[in-house]
Each structure stands twice: as structure tokens, then as C-alpha cells.
Design a protein that fits this description.
By secondary structure, this protein is mostly helical. Helix content is about 85%, strand content about 0%. It contains four helices and no strands.
């Protein structure tokens, strides 16, 4: 299976999984909810942009680096949600595993882009 499609599939799965988790967060934490949702949508957008920009390596590398930054932000916000007690440890670990998988694929794609230069 192509790494691009793996990345997109994992991003989609993570987005839907996190979306289900966000339902349990109370309304007084709307700021965290919106940050997580916004960053996940940005990751989906950047993943699609990475696939479309097949001829410009500089843009593709920028997209991957931006995905890694957004993943770190999501990881931070999910940790904060866990610390505040809105999700259980099992769900936190599942989300973290999804993020780690996306991060591994992203670093692999970034290494692959470096080999083309």
C-alpha cells in the first residue's frame, strides 16, 4: 500500500476517533474542543495538499513538517483533556497510538522526500 494513502487513511481514522471523543467534553471547555477540531481538519487539509503537490518537493516537505507540528499540538490538547478527567486512560492511550502511527508515516515520507533531493 502506498504511504500517501496510508497517511490519509490513518488521518481519517484518527479524525473520526477524536471527533467521537470530543462529544464528551463539556461546553465550558469549548476552546480546547475547537482547537483540537481545527488542528485535525488542518491535518486532513495538509495531507490532501501533500498528495496533490506531487511535483514540488519543497511544498511537500513543508506540508509534512506542518502536519508534525499540528500532531504535537493535538497530542498536547489530548493530554490536557485527559488530565482534566474528561477521557479515561484507555481512550487517551488509543488516541496517542493513532498520533504515533501518523507521526511514523510522516517522518518516513519526510525522509523519502530528502532522498529525492
Amino acid at each position: 500500500m502506498n504511504s500517501n494513502f496510508q497517511l490519509l487513511n490513518n488521518v481519517k481514522k484518527t479524525y473520526w476517533y477524536i471527533n467521537k471523543m470530543l462529544i464528551n467534553i463539556p461546553k465550558n471547555e469549548m476552546k480546547i474542543k475547537s482547537y483540537v477540531d481545527e488542528n485535525m481538519l488542518d491535518i486532513v487539509k495538509l495531507t490532501l495538499s501533500y498528495q496533490i503537490n506531487s511535483d514540488n518537493i519543497r511544498i511537500r516537505k513543508g506540508n509534512i513538517k506542518e502536519i508534525l507540528i499540528k500532531l504535537s499540538l493535538i497530542d498536547f490538547f489530548v493530554l490536557e483533556i485527559y488530565k482534566r478527567g474528561y477521557i479515561k486512560k484507555k481512550k487517551y492511550m488509543s488516541i496517542t497510538n493513532y498520533i504515533i502511527e501518523i507521526r511514523k508515516i510522516s517522518y518516513g515520507l519526510l525522509r523519502n522526500e530528502d532522498n529525492y533531493i
